């Protein structure tokens, strides 16, 4: 792997800017000036909004707000099928999440992304809006294109006087920034320039995984986390020099792994179980479910230079990979997960070292799920349970963090568990609620999760009161393959354009709308009217319908059910036995998505 110049100079630069920062703040203390030097504008921020204790807002024993700062950790492509999050994968070591963060947090076992691909999902949860509101369906569009005056999540904290800093992949980049410049100047404080080094790739002629020979600190995630920690130290030191210490921070840290390529330090691959000991799901799980329509299916690209590029990989909905090859892939993914966990551990270490762990809320989640051969699929870009369900941990001092006395009495190894069905658009109102801030737009669809978190701090490790948290909505577009388009959508089969996420919105041909409720996942696929950017929601436009029974072991609890061998559910849409359920869910789907914009209801509606 060729080392990027940014990697080489980073350690020197970060030390220089840390020194420059302290010197600048020293001058600020003496002269109370505002200095701007090469984009590092150092100034006195607006006073943060005042907060007060309330039934939902956590406060410390002395009556002051318990949550002062926010550390927002966004992970890329992390499956929720890990055992910590109620899944069956227990071979990926994540000690920092399992033994350090989870015991201080509430673990939301049924949290869902609104679109299972990086850019649109991030545009959704960082703006607090669904994809049909942002109209960010691919990497080529952002919420700023449709909603230029919208207030992003970090921007809301910036407007309240917080120091807002972004590191790594928060908003989407990957060569097509969405929004441009990581949403500068709106989201981030001018004295904290956004830091995003280039991504680690394995290089041509290699598999989608590798172990480059270089120090951990030169890997992308090592650079990102080190930069965040150095900036955090600088902020604390500067506050001490000023004698104030009252400016809170909102730090968003985007960790790329386990996104492909799985380029990780060799020690993390060596630490995994041996290749022969990697467990695989049964063959029946590694193929498409009975009755699943072709439009619902998506697989990673295997064509160079894309991701799983190697000649022996032939991905099929009906034929599992060779066992040895799948074990290689899973082992590499687990190594990337462990590397991610190590970087989370460094952030937790820094909070403790700087005395910030008792007044900093931590939110940890993935941007979407990830398939590891389940249902015959690898990667994401679908409306399936595995593609949309995400890990979500929320830790809030005074709310989820037990007192010192309780910590001595109870050695918790699992988080407080919430079985409520929640969405990533709920993160925005939750964080503002924790900070005692008001939503900039009262019409946002997300809901604060604090009512689901309150009981764990005082009564045990199971949260309740899930009233109103009963449905999660997702969607995903499909683009016809150019070579097959003249023959019509019926000829697509499983050959939908794999690069749809890299195309403009006007190339979308079909949109899938999905809802997850207690016991069911229901999805309808409609043809798309590109000119008006909306579905043809009528019988003529309907492409496919899916209805799958979920939560069949609900009486045992979600954690017990999810840890069972993945159950292959057949598509029972249009089965007379489930007609009433299908009609109910179809109406629920329509009522939700049609509330964003009028749908094309006429059967003869066409583009013009």
UniProtKB/TrEMBL annotation:
GO terms for cellular component: cytoplasm. Pfam families: Sulfatase. The keyword Calcium applies. One of its GO terms (molecular function) is iduronate-2-sulfatase activity. InterPro entries: Alkaline_phosphatase_core_sf, IDS, Sulfatase_N. The keyword Calcium applies. Keywords: Calcium, Hydrolase, Metal-binding, Signal. Its cofactor is Ca(2+). It comes from the Eukaryota. Residues 68-436 form the Sulfatase N-terminal domain. PANTHER family: IDURONATE 2-SULFATASE. Belongs to the sulfatase family. This is Sulfatase N-terminal domain-containing protein. It comes from Nannochloropsis salina CCMP1776.
